[in-house]
Structure formats: structure tokens, C-alpha cells
């Protein structure tokens, strides 16, 4: 695949996909994790992977919703290798507990889908440890989960075919609408000063900043662990009909409905990144609709910013 920057219009109104869920290869023997797998794109991703023979772990906050999803998936696919582990990505302690539970149950992890996310939450909402809700959930939460699972991922890579152990990081085209400097660090740390900075930036740009963060840590993960067999890919799944935008202004929701697609389309890029044989060559790359390699904005390609964000995240989780 050629690497070029695909235009905004083509990303929002893409051509017909050339790769679909029907092209997902056999997943027998694969164990995968999907955060936010109880609904939306995550649920569709889980459905396809389960139908192809994978053992699927849904990591989500609501046990009731997840168990309902699991029963639906079992009926739809005729497969029963789908399990639930409770995780609250707004709480670093919960993330640690969830990772420990998974490692206690499984000896392999082939693909980690960092899929869950929040969007345009009220600006005064913070995580359990006091971080901006969007950055704390979308970036720091997934960074910490990935960090805790890296020993198992790298161990799995050592005994698996090259390029088959992957971390798929769901970002968004909204990464272009964050802070002018990329990451506005004053919005990230707990405290009143952070709240003032967040109010100044605004909830939409805070979301964009968090989606930029997803690409930055995905790229840095690729750089640091590609040599150990990990393939890290970030992506924009498309404008998809989910409840992600439930906090958005009603006008934005109405406009969004005009150019949104079903979760069947939304799962194409994640499934491609996680399963397609040729995606094993895409370590450190970014995909857009539908499973097309493109370039994110220039801030998302800033190696110094990638390193700085990784180090910032490490500092926040070191004492959990």
C-alpha cells in the first residue's frame, strides 16, 4: 500500500471498501482483548473475530451490558469462546486489576484492541486519579493497560509467526483539531490549574488532543517494541453510528447523522489492522476509511512529542 495523505473529503465519504470482514482469515488459536467490546465498533469486531474462531475477551465497565452482549454474540455466531473482564479505564487501579486477572487466566495474547473511548465529556469531569476525563480514559488508561500486557504480548510474539502479534489503537480524524502545539500539557495534570486550562481549550479540542495522543503512543510503541515482534497500528474507524457522541451538542449530532456509517463499516479498519496478513508490515502506520494507509497530521509524526508523551504516561502510572 502506498503511503500518502488522503484528503478529508475522501476520509469522511470514502469509496467502497476493497477489504471487508469477509476477508478476515481464520482466527482459531488466537486470543484477543477488545476494550469497549460490549457495544458499537468493539461489539462488531468481537462478533467477527468470534465467528472466525478467536477467543475473545471483552473488557468493559458494565458487567450487565457485557453479559447481554456475550449472550447475543454466542447466539449469532454459534461460538462460546467469549468472556468478560471488568475494567474501568477511568481508574488506573481497576486497569491494573483487570490486566492481572487476564494474565492469571491466559498464557498468550495475540491482539490487543484499544477500542474504548469517551468523547466531548463535560469539561469538569475527571478520572478517578483526577486527570482530564478524555485524555485520562482514551490515552493514559490504554497506555497503562498496554504497558501491563506487554510482557505477555512480547512472549507471545516470540513463539508466533512474525508480524502476527498486534496492538490496534483506535484514534480518529479528530486528531487534527487538538491544541495548536499538539499536546497542551497544562490540561493534563490534576488540579484547579488544569481545569482552567481545559476550559480555555474546550471539550471538542480536548477530544482531538486525546485522539492525537492515541497516534503518538501507538507510534512510540511501534518504535520501542517493533524489534520484539509487536506490530502497533493506529486508525480512524470512520464516522460511525454509535453512542460515543452522546455528550455532543444536539446540532453536531444531527449533522453527524448525515455522514455516519454502520458499525459493520466501522469495524473494517480495526479488523484489517488486527488480522490481515499484509497489515503485519504496517508497524507504526495509521489507517483511515476503509483500511487505507494514510498519513496523520504532522504533529502525529513528531518523534520528540511521541517520546515526551510516553515518558509523561510512564511517570503518571509508576506508583499505581
From TrEMBL:
Keywords: NADP, Oxidoreductase. It holds the Pfam family adh_short. InterPro entries: NAD(P)-bd_dom_sf (IPR036291), SDR_fam (IPR002347). One of its GO terms (molecular function) is oxidoreductase activity. It comes from the Eukaryota. Belongs to the short-chain dehydrogenases/reductases (SDR) family. PANTHER family: RETINOL DEHYDROGENASE, SHORT-CHAIN DEHYDROGENASE-RELATED. This is NAD(P)-binding protein. It comes from Russula ochroleuca. The lineage of its organism: Eukaryota, Fungi, Dikarya, Basidiomycota, Agaricomycotina.
